[in-house]
Amino acid sequence: MAAAATPTSWLTGQGLGGRSPGFQFPWRSKELQRKYTGKAVYGQISAKFELKPPPYPPNALEPHMSKDTLEYHWGKHHRAYVENLNKQIVGTELDGMSLEDVIIVSYNKGNMLPPFNNAAQAWNHEFFWESMKPGGGGKPSGELLELIERDFGSFDRFLEEFKSAAATQFGSGWAWLAYKANRLNVDNAVNPFPSEKDKKLVVVKSPNAVNPLVWDYSPLLTIDVWEHAYFLDFENRRPNYISVFMDKLVSWEVVSKRLEIAKARATKREMEEERRKKEEEEENSEDEAVEVYVDGDESESE
Amino acid sequence: MALRSLAIRKAIGLGKSVGLGLRGLQTVTLPDLPYDYSALEPAISGEIMQLHHQKHHQAYVTNYNKAVEQLFQALNKVDTSTVVQLQGAIKFNGGGHVNHSIFWKNLAPVHEGGGEPPHSSLGWAIDTHFGSLEALIQKMSAEGAALQGSGWVWLGLDTEFKRLVVETTANQDPLVTKAPTLVPLLGIDVWEHAYYLQYKNVKPDYLKNIWNVMNWKYASDVYQKECP
To answer: Residue B193: which of A77, A209, A231 has the nearest Cβ?
Structure first.
């Protein structure tokens, strides 16, 4: 599936075996259309992506994350990603796309185009600030907790897995809690036999700027493990940073909300897939109707 | 090889699987810096040098030794899955040790020749391959600045073609992972921990100032050994 292809490139249906030239796979093109006109949750529809401030003042996370860190991390690093992204895409075909679309397109199936790093990092950092809150930490509740217990065994086991992923992401990167629906565990391969069991929470880690959007997962929570995220407060003691993050900073309310959105999106997609399949069946039967010949002897022709 | 030696040891009644002792699992140790922590100021602060050496490099050494010990045991038990699973930790921590050991020697205080341009054969080779020392410096600084995430930028010698190259490696991958014929002459650590406390996110300033403490003598020595 060419996530990087423009919507029109799938419409020729070339090489798809015996279809008439103008045939389209309607569900394919709609899927891509959805990708490109999808909800612009975080970006803006213009080349001027803005640097949104975190939903709390820079000293609000003290003593767990210092004001200095917030000021450098948000004020210098995050700002640079946003500004450089705008410079990179102005006037190009990425200009005007939502941030998430810029990410998917420039990811280019792993062969990243130059704007990818800035785009993904801009998105990641906004997501990161919103994953924290003053007085955060503790445990999740409600449906989120249920799913965690279902998919990891217990909240403590989840915690272990998440902390381990964050600690073993060699070099720069991120660790994530994500919701995956009908995707295999390998990049963005589609599961051909989706079932209820395939909609589940997973912990994943990613290097540098990569995030689970490129695998078509729905991210719910992230921790930045680039050194700049913790160096001023923890020096090289990454495991301490991770523990403090989980114990004192995570905003489980936000994570729960994101889960709701992710589930709704997955359900909507399922309904779309069903509808498409039905449409395709109808089209097929239409085609067959067309191929019936009126001249009696030839009625069984292929 | 480890299996054979273990078998031999068992045969002569000396071996127990705990006794990695006799033939000895060689561990690595943290090398001393050839200068004080503050000797590279103002290019690199003493605080960074101390942290970098005592915490980061030490962690690579400790974890490498741990991983190798586990590898040894896994090899003896023919536990292939574990052998394979340990490769990541070995590459990362072993690479970290290799790279940083070179890095400390790549730097020198100004009063001990840090920053003094290379002469003789290396100087000539640089002019030939890059046009001038300034061009090489600019190229390395640019590649270092462009590197996303964590990694290193190297001046290397391709021993097969006797040619100087500028390369980058990701994370703690040693230069030799780019090609087995490459020998590192100079490496610059562009992990954030190498400059953050002093330069914050202004990596280009770090890359500008580090040349003031670059130990070209070391690079020349290595070069002359490979290209006599």
So the answer is: A231
pTM of the predicted structure, to 2 decimals:
0.80
Among A80, A207, A232, whose Cβ lies nearest the Cβ of B149? A207
Q: How far is CA B221 from the centre of its chain?
A: 17
Q: In whole angstroms, what is the distance from residue A280 CA to residue B66 CA? A: 58
**Which two three-digit tokens encode residue A262?**
């992710």
| Alpha-carbon distance A75 to nearest alpha carbon in chain B (angstroms) | 10
Q: Determine the Cα–Cα distance for residues B223 and B216; give it in Å rounded to an integer.
A: 10
* Nearest CB partner across the interface for A235, out of B51, B92, B191: B51
Q: Are strands B151-158 and B163-170 parallel, antiparallel or unpaired?
A: antiparallel
* CB contact at 8 A, B157 and B222: yes
Residue position matching structure tokens 């796309």: A97
pLDDT values of chain A reduced to their tens digit, one per residue, 302 residues: 444 433 333 333 333 333 344 333 333 334 443 344 334 445 444 568 999 999 999 999 999 999 999 999 999 999 999 999 999 999 899 999 999 999 999 999 889 999 999 999 999 999 999 999 999 999 999 999 999 999 999 999 999 999 999 999 999 999 999 998 866 655 556 666 666 667 889 999 999 999 999 988 999 999 999 999 999 999 999 999 999 999 999 999 999 999 999 999 988 888 888 888 888 888 877 665 555 566 655 545 44
Sign (positive or negative) of CA dihedral B38, B41, B47, B50: negative
What is the Cα–Cα distance from A164 to A205, expressed in whole angstroms? Answer: 10
In the structure, how many helices (H) and strands (E) does chain A have? 10, 3
- The β-bridge partners of B184 are B156
Max intra-chain CA distance, chain A: 87
Using only C-alpha atoms, chain B has a radius of gyration, in whole angstroms, of 20
How many helices, marked H, and strands, marked E, lie in chain B? 10, 3
Q: Which two tokens stand for residue A203?
A: 């912990």
Please name which of B85, B92, B153 lies closest in space to residue A207, comparing C-alpha atoms: B92
Are the beta carbons of A228 and B201 separated by less than 8 Å? Answer: yes
Q: Using the CB atoms, write b or e for B131-148: b if 16+ within 10 Å.
A: eebeebbeebbebbeebe
Q: Do A228 and B149 touch (CB under 8 A)?
A: no
